[in-house]
Amino acid sequence: MINKKVENVHVALEGVQDGMTFIVGGFGLCGIPENIIAELVRLGVKDITCISNNAGVDDFGLGFLLNNKQIKKMIASYVGENDEFERQMLSGELEVELTPQGTLAEKCRAAQHGFPAIWTPAGYGTEVAEGKETREFDGKMYVLEMAYKADFSFVKAWKGDEAGNLIFKGTARNFNQPMAGAGKITVAEVEELVPAGELDPNQIHVPGIFVNRIFQGEKYEKRIEQRTVRPRI
């Protein structure tokens, strides 16, 4: 069986260069590849195009890369929790492409499965559809959206094996699952890495065919983005 395990995050990110396009998993601060983001900061790669559901917060997640001015273009569906993102966007320092959340997920899934594009009704008749091909199907108008092209996909899973099979936990599955395999090279960091064959095949969310490199991460902070509790009675 193919062994896709690498020793650490430094080896996992070999080949990363300035000007590349990265797809980054996670939903809010849930399920983000913390070790990979920290390594991108350490490497100092710049002029990145980053495709992710959101842009992190000011002092965590992709916010680290934004603060260092490493991201040139951000493609995302929600960016409302990051003041530095807002500042860079309004000042013209950061190029921004806002995408409906479902469209973003499906453009990743299309890339994952080798489809060049998808048809979606989302955005028809708005600025989202400007300059794009539209077509009617069964009396309803659709917009042609091209699949994403990325150099790397970075995802984070709860558990994985050395063959690259992944299991996610809870909300962390949202965008990590369709993003695995959407780039030319997919790197997965996991909280627990086990030998190939130890995972229950019926529980696997992403098969190893979509993963090129896998390593066990460490020192996860797992911040809560918005802590909401019920008042004491």
Notes on the protein architecture:
The chain is α/β, with parallel strands linked by helices. The chain has a single domain, classed as Glutaconate Coenzyme A-transferase. It has 6 helices and 11 strands. The strands form 2 sheets. Strands 1, 2, 3, 4, 8, 9, 10 and 11 form an 8-stranded mixed sheet that branches. Strands 5-7-6 form a 3-stranded antiparallel sheet, covered by helices on one side. Strand 2, helix 3 and strand 3 form a beta-alpha-beta unit. The longest helix is centred in the middle third of the chain and has 13 residues, at 101-113. It is globular and about 50 Å long.
Order of helices and strands: HEHEHEHEHEEEEEHEE
- Sheet having the most strands: 8 strands, mixed
Through-space gap between termini: 57 Å
CATH architecture: 3-Layer(aba) Sandwich
Radius of gyration: 18 Å
Percent of residues in helical segments? 10-25%
Number of strands: 11
Structural class: alpha/beta
Strand content: 25-35%
Family: Belongs to the 3-oxoacid CoA-transferase subunit A family.
EC number: 2.8.3.5
Protein name: 3-oxoacid CoA-transferase subunit A
Enzyme class: transferase
What topology does this entry show?
Elements (H helix, E strand, L loop, with lengths): L8 H4 L8 E4 L9 H10 L4 E4 L11 H5 L3 E6 L6 H9 L3 E4 L2 H13 L3 E4 L13 E4 L2 E7 L3 E12 L4 E2 L5 H7 L3 E12 L18 E4 L17
Parallel strand pairs: 1-2, 1-8, 2-3, 3-4, 8-10, 10-11
Antiparallel strand pairs: 5-7, 6-7, 8-9
What does this entry show, briefly?
The chain is of the alpha/beta class.
